[in-house]
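Translate structure to sequence.
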């Protein structure tokens, strides 16, 4: 039986840190489903189709990676994807409390859910989508923070809203 994991997030935009976690998860699981949350409450900078396109391009050389979108409870989406394994990335101690709360909430909704926390490499530990968006807002360089393949997709015309 195939071991499948779900790696959820907004990926607004996908960063080198996300790719690092996807690669690490793939060493543990046969298939990793990268689940892009619509997250309208967060007012994403990039549309859901654009975020999906970015992830498809950034992971095109990785067998066993599937990109999906969702706008439901994560535990319901996990059930639809036939997995109980959820991957979450931890960059710093400050991430842990929030991620732990999410993990407990998911477990309260489905006791079979397992959350696995992975850390990116040190060189990617400081990268977050919010840091990338802040740099973009001020027209700074991001080529060292995101996969080079997606750089052509990041331009002012692709923004959903201003920050």
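Result:
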């Amino acid at each position: 039986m195939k071991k499948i994991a779900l790696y959820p997030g907004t990926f607004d935009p996908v960063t080198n840190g996300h790719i690092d976690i996807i690669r690490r998860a793939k060493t543990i699981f046969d298939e990793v489903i990268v689940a892009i949350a619509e997250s309208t409450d967060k007012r994403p900078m990039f549309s859901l189709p654009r975020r999906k396109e970015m992830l498809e391009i950034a992971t095109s050389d990785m067998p066993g990676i599937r990109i999906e979108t969702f706008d439901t409870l994560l535990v319901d989406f996990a059930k639809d994807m036939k997995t109980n394994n959820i991957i979450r990335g931890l960059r710093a101690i400050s991430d842990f409390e929030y991620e732990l709360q999410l993990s407990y909430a998911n477990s309260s909704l489905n006791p079979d859910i397992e959350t696995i926390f992975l850390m990116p490499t040190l060189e990617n530990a400081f990268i977050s989508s919010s840091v990338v968006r802040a740099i973009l807002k001020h027209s700074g360089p991001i080529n060292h923070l995101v996969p080079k393949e997606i750089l052509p997709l990041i331009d002012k015309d692709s923004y959903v809203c201003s920050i």
